[in-house]
Automatic annotation (TrEMBL):
PANTHER family: TRANSCRIPTIONAL REGULATOR, MARR FAMILY. Pfam families: HxlR. Residues 15-113 form the HTH hxlR-type domain. The lineage of its organism: Bacteria, Bacillati, Bacillota, Bacilli, Bacillales. Gene3D superfamilies: Winged helix-like DNA-binding domain superfamily/Winged helix DNA-binding domain. Keywords: DNA-binding, Transcription, Transcription regulation. This is ArsR family transcriptional regulator. It comes from Paenibacillus anseongense. Signal peptide: none annotated.
């Protein structure tokens, strides 16, 4: 096709999707980022919002998101100690992607009868 600007041509550096999946490819990371879009969260809030995640897995996923610069871990000097998690400026760049995934999920879950109403 003449004049076709095919954005899906092979890239010698690999698929650009890999860069995104490297950051949020694990199921729980996307959900964590989604819950941080609205506000700073504490560890136990995540446990309530995501009851199927184990404490060990949540700790691991939060640490990995912090290591790659997506979230900031704030330790408050209080007794008892309190820790809050929030998105960094870099983490906020994922907002459009996460929102598109949410919208797609809602639309298609409704079509498949996953959510009543």
């Amino acid at each position: 096709m003449e004049g076709n600007n095919n954005q899906y041509l092979p890239d010698p550096r690999g698929c650009p999707m890999e860069a995104t999946l490297e950051v949020i490819g694990v199921k729980w990371k996307r959900v964590i980022v989604y819950h941080l879009l609205s506000e700073t969260r504490r560890f136990n809030e995540f446990r309530r919002l995501m009851p199927d995640i184990t404490q060990r897995m949540l700790t691991l996923q939060l640490r990995e998101l912090e290591d790659c610069g997506v979230l900031h871990r704030e330790v408050y000097k209080e007794v008892p100690p309190r820790v809050g998690y929030s998105l960094t400026e870099f983490g906020r760049t994922l907002e459009p992607i996460i929102n598109l995934m949410r919208d797609w999920g809602l639309e298609n879950a409704n079509k498949r009868g996953m959510f009543p109403g």
